[in-house]
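Researcher: We're teaching a course module on how sequence relates to structure. For the next exercise, students receive a sequence and then see the predicted structure as tokens, so they can try to spot secondary structure elements on their own. Here is the exercise chain.
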Amino acid sequence: MGSTAGDALAAHRGARGEEALVVARVDGELRDLDSPLADGAVVEPVLAGSADGLSVLRHSAAHVLAQAVQAARPDARLGIGPPVTDGFYYDFDVEVPFTPEDLQALQKAMARLVKEGQRFRRRVVTEEEARAELADEPYKLELIGLKGPGADGDGEEVAEGASAEVGGGELTIYENLRRDGSVAWRDLCRGPHAPSTKALGNAFALTRSAAAYWRGDQGNAQLQRVYGTAWATKEGLAAYVERLAEAERRDHRRLGSELDLFSFPDEIGSGLAVFHPRGGVVRREMEDYSRRRHEESGYSFVYTPHITKKDLFETSGHLGWYADGMFPPMHLDEQRDADGTLRRQGQDYYLKPMNCPFHNLVFGSRGRSYRELPLRLFEFGSVYRYEKSGVVHGLTRVRGMTQDDAHIYCTREQMAGELGDLLAFVLGLLRDYGLNDFYLELSTRNPDKSIGSEEDWAQATDALAQAAATSGLELVPDPGGAAFYGPKISVQARDAIGRTWQMSTIQVDFQLPQRFELEYQAADGSRQRPVMIHRALFGSVERFFGVLLEHYAGAFPPWLAPVQVVGIPVAGDFAPHLHDVAALLRARGVRVEVDDSDDRMQKKIRTHTKAKVPFQLIAGAEDVEKGAVSFRYRDGTQDNGVPVAEAVERVVAAIASKAQV
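Model: And here is the predicted structure for the students to work with:
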């Protein structure tokens, strides 16, 4: 028998924790350690603490979970169980939903399977063999039929996570083997997996359960999804649990209610937010600053309607490529006689999911000269997308949103310079809002879901890659992740607790100018097509609001805070002094309130600290006598006896500097 990948990496055997050997990378592909090696194969270790190693551990944990579920509930039918960011899940068709107590019992059962040290073994099977062995698993049989040998695709388009189970040109089953070699459990899976269940150690946990739909379609059977997490070490698991707790404390939905910023009234509908006065202040400041920066950078503001006839989206291609994300049409303008005879044909109108087709109409409304280029159009445009109810989430996944949308029209010669300047502009503006830790993602063409020539796509992709290189930021590839009309760069920002959020996107588009027959007159008198660059800075105002709210845990910097200063008199007699101070601050544009309620001073301090007001100005007899106030900051520190004029300047300077106080 020939050597295996594990034999070639024998020097790594015995290591523990993040250095533990999980699988091998053989000629660039992840393989099980017992995979036979061909002569000349290049073998590299994949350790538990690496991104690939963690993914394998989590996929292995999903199998252990499914084995435990079917041991406890033999009637449970298996859906899909892939690894995901920071964890894994598995979908089950069960009679009764899982309770928190069920999850505790399942986690204990998983621990017993881990301690037993069952070995994972891979077997290549024919479609007939797979169907015979999994005859009691209807969802697996469906996947085999859709993505078995000879089928197109890799499984990902069939269902989220399906590529973990089928595809890759062959069908494989993974078996969990007891120490005597008998089969304890099996599953349809592409792998690879850890050598045995012992690799999971005690660094895994089940976190929650939720409803899910087979293949993500609400028209299909409802399943129960169990989520879990797995790490290379117990310390890694503990750190993750603490991050989850901190994320819960920062949940923008909870903070939005506690700080009276926004709500989602049932009377309006799912995914449609209303901003309250205090939230409106934050949103206005965000938008006003963005407007000012855009004006300084040569953008022209436009405004477009919320609905349009379907012809516009047929021209743009959105009805062909994006119809599932659009609200259903409204059939309007039809006219009939009293007897029902049709006198005028009606038309379908759609709520707009994108602003770009409208901006193309602005560009094409008259002749354009090369002297006008680059033409930068900008709009805070309201758009509507039919997100499924299962994915709507607070402000970060909504159905009605306002995009800070820009479209830049330029010549091909201007494109590279414009992209570089645009990326610098985007990063600078995001930094002004307090985000500083970035990397970039380059999404390239999916040949099956795109239009246009290879030459155009290559030129656009190269231009984006050059702009990314100029930024000096890490560039991560996203193969096949581009929109149908062109490649894009997305700015990924890490927040205060290390989570990654997709922020700004920049897309190069040669296709829509052609579909809309946009032209400009070049210097030589010829008619040329402009290049169109799509750019969303916030993504959406609502989503960016939610991200910032969690990033700051509700404690917005002074320039964004709904109330920037509150005056607190030690006793009622000192309130007039603070009203005078407040008048001086208001004259300088500061949002200030004076709390002259009947509450005791200490209760007022607690109330406004909880409301996360940046500055509390306290005044007692000595402060009034000296024309001063006492500064109290959000962290509880205090600076007493500050002269009023100095206090005003201190507040104004903090706001103007956009300091993260």
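Model: If you want an answer key for the exercise: Residues 378 and 406 are 4 Å apart (CA to CA). The domain at 565-656 is CATH 3.40.50.800 (Rossmann fold).
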